[in-house]
Design goal:
Shape: globular
Radius of gyration: 19 Å
Strand content: 15-25%
Order of helices and strands: EEHEHHHEEEHHHHEEHEEH
Number of strands: 10
Number of helices: 10
């Protein structure tokens, strides 16, 4: 029997999101929460509670009958790319079983893997998503990612990444409001494709913020980073990409000591990323007003195969 387990982390957008969908740039970090997929060839299959993501990945990369076990640690529908992390874990496992896994010790291999994951998520799972999700989840770490030429209906050439060596003084707080990324991105994409000048101008303004944010983090200029995050949030909110739960949580963060705060992914709920001097104090204060789920961003490894047994029996 062949057994494989693979996992992939979630991610949080620091500055620049969601311009990655429109050929822009995003400064992003992985999180320690990981989704995992265990595949056992030769074991009796069991029915998954929700098989949509597995069906999409398996349709693209078919294998023989198997038992699939999924574990989810990334907060569900929270704007931290849980669906991408799960598809990445599934895809890594399927590719490993098929003997087709790219070299995940190289940047080139991880980028090829990221492009495949994004293609499966967008075209087989029909999930409206950007490019930072698959790239961040595949590569891990703290990255400035740039996607010139890409847009919602044009995958274009591969993006480029610059790994950033800096502290990550952030706290992630979920609003508790679950929503699908397509509920936010779908409408925004339609507006961009139709020539909505407000959306186009906003997406053109965000990439420079990401690049400046990388410089600010490397230099430890937290005042500048706070201002960049604030501007990012204001611009996205002005075109309807934030929402009341996010706006309320941002106010709570600022009122309780955060330097700045903004949405970490798609809006209308999900998660806020707060720049702060004292994570524990901010978390304590936010718990007092009712928030319960917190995550600390971490420069962790991207998608990986954790276990592979019985390979010879597959040959």
């Amino acid at each position: 029997m062949v057994t494989i387990q693979a996992s992939a982390p979630g991610r949080c957008g620091i500055v620049g999101n969601p311009s990655d969908i429109y050929g822009g740039a995003v400064l992003s970090c992985s999180i320690p929460c990981r989704n995992s997929c265990r595949i056992e060839i030769g074991a009796t299959p069991i029915e998954l509670p929700d098989s949509r993501l597995w069906d999409a990945a398996h349709k693209r990369l078919p294998i023989g009958p198997c038992r699939v076990t999924l574990e989810t640690d990334v907060p569900r529908s929270s704007g931290l790319s849980g669906s991408t992390a799960m598809i990445a874990a599934m895809t890594a496992g399927l590719l490993a079983i098929r003997g087709e896994l790219p070299d995940l010790t190289s940047g080139v291999g991880r980028t090829a893997f990221a492009e495949l994951v994004r293609d499966i998520e967008r075209n087989d799972a029909s999930i409206v998503c950007g490019f930072q999700d698959a790239y961040m989840i595949s590569h891990g770490g703290l990255q400035l990612m740039e996607f010139p030429g890409k847009h919602p209906i044009n995958p274009a050439p591969s993006g480029t990444l610059t790994e950033i060596d800096a502290e990550t003084p952030f706290l992630l707080i979920t609003t508790g409001v679950e929503r699908l990324s397509g509920a936010v991105h779908g409408q925004m994409i339609d507006r961009w494709l139709s020539g909505d000048t407000a959306v186009i101008e906003t997406m053109n303004c965000l990439p420079p913020l990401a690049r400046q944010g990388a410089v600010a983090m490397i230099g430890g200029d937290w005042d500048l980073l706070a201002e960049l995050m604030r501007e990012n949030q204001e611009r996205v909110a002005a075109i309807g990409g934030s929402g009341e739960p996010i706006d309320r949580l941002i106010k709570h963060c600022l009122d309780n000591g955060a330097r700045s705060a903004k949405l970490a992914g798609a809006g209308l709920g999900g998660t806020v990323i707060a720049l702060c001097d004292d994570r524990l104090d901010l978390e304590r204060r936010l718990r007092a007003v009712g928030y319960v789920r917190f995550v600390v961003p971490e420069k962790t490894i991207g998608a990986k195969v954790e276990e592979l047994a019985g390979r010879k029996s597959l040959d």
